[in-house]
Amino acid sequence: MKKIAILYMCTGQYLKLWPGFFESAEKYLLKQSEVHYFVFTDADHLDGEENNPCVHRIFQKPEPWPYTTLKRFDIFLRIEDELKAFDYIYFFNANCEFRVPITEEMILPRREKHEKMVFVLHPCFFTWYNFQFPYDRNPHSKAFIPMGLGREYVCGGINGGESKAYLKFCHTLQKRIQKDCDHGVMALWHDESHINWYAMAHPGYRLLDSSYAYFESFPLDIPIYIFIRAKSHYFDVDTFKKDPPKSQLTPREEKFNEMSAKLAHKIQRRMPWLPRRLNK
User: Fold this and answer.
1) 86 closest CA partner among 169, 167, 156, 24
2) Which of 16, 40, 96, 152 could form a disulfide with 92 if both were Cys (CB 3.0 to 4.6 A apart)?
3) Which among 111, 134, 98, 108 is positioned nearest to 212, based on CA atoms?
4) What is the DSSP string of 12-37?
């Protein structure tokens, strides 16, 4: 039987999302495997922990937005020795909810295809051309992706893989994010921007479609496997995320990116047969 570690963060108001996640995971998630939940929280109790020895509560103090999400890889590596005992490691955002059975065949990397990591196509951008993706275009950030590069835009809220590969992923991004912080640089979409850099720089992963990240606020005509609940139903998101730190591009950098986007758009118009996603 495979052993799978689930990483989950719910500090502060995010604790309200845990019961729905846990109930649906126990009903639908990887039922042929031994699943353990590593929950990073400031709560002194979690629903279900008294009856399930596979729920491991780990204290994590709340941080101002966006530092809990931005520094999550550093947080995960605090329990690296425990995670090494598992075959696979997966992270799920607090607002995930499983709607159908999620089997090992559906979500694990496929060894016959030499896959070690798994990412999910972001439902808001899967029909866009790559020059339209909201990658970080700041050349001072370690999440920087130059115009014209990148095959798809993946969401930051669901990812996983073989334990060794996933821990390498965590170490790599932890170091790169720390370098940004040391230089006062904030990636455009925080950890998601860094995750997209990693996916671009390390191809060969398994890419799941947007059925595995179906946004409640962005309905699509596709099957729903993993439902992303709107956080606004549970707490005031705007107040929580008010005035986050940002990095500003210089006028010269803004102009360069604008010209690059126009050039990419011109190329696309002259070659309309190009797929919207370059790997189609």
Assistant:
1) 167
2) 96
3) 98
4) GGGGGGHHHHHHHHHHHB-TTSEEEE
Start-to-end CA distance of the chain, whole Å, equals 35
For residue 163 the two structure tokens come to 């334990």
CA distances, 223 to each of 19, 203, 228 (Å)? 23, 26, 13
What average pLDDT does the segment 100-114 reach?
97
Tens of pLDDT, residues 131-174: 889 999 999 999 999 888 888 999 999 999 999 999 999 999 99
The single residue listed with the structure tokens 């995930």 is 96
pLDDT band at 128 (very low <50, low <70, confident <90, very high): confident
Whole-model pTM: value is: 0.90
Q: At what angle do helices 191-201 and 163-182 cross, to 10 degrees?
A: 120
- Residue 250 has a pLDDT of 67
The 10s digit of each residue's pLDDT in 173-191 is: 999 999 999 999 999 999 9
Over residues 114-124, the mean pLDDT reads 96
The CA–CA distances, whole Å, from 249 to 136, 149, 176, 255 equal 10, 19, 19, 10
What's the mean pLDDT in 227-236? 93
Identity at 20, one-letter amino acid code: G
* Domains of the chain: residue spans and CATH: 3-270 (3.90.550.10)
Nearest to 4 by CA among 34, 38, 31, 40: 34
At residue 107, the 3 state secondary structure works out as helix
DSSP state at residue 144: B
The CA distances from residue 103 to 28, 33, 183, 221, 251, in Å, are 8, 9, 42, 22, 49
Q: Beta-carbon neighbour count of residue 246 at 10 Å?
A: 10
For residue 196, the one-letter residue type is N
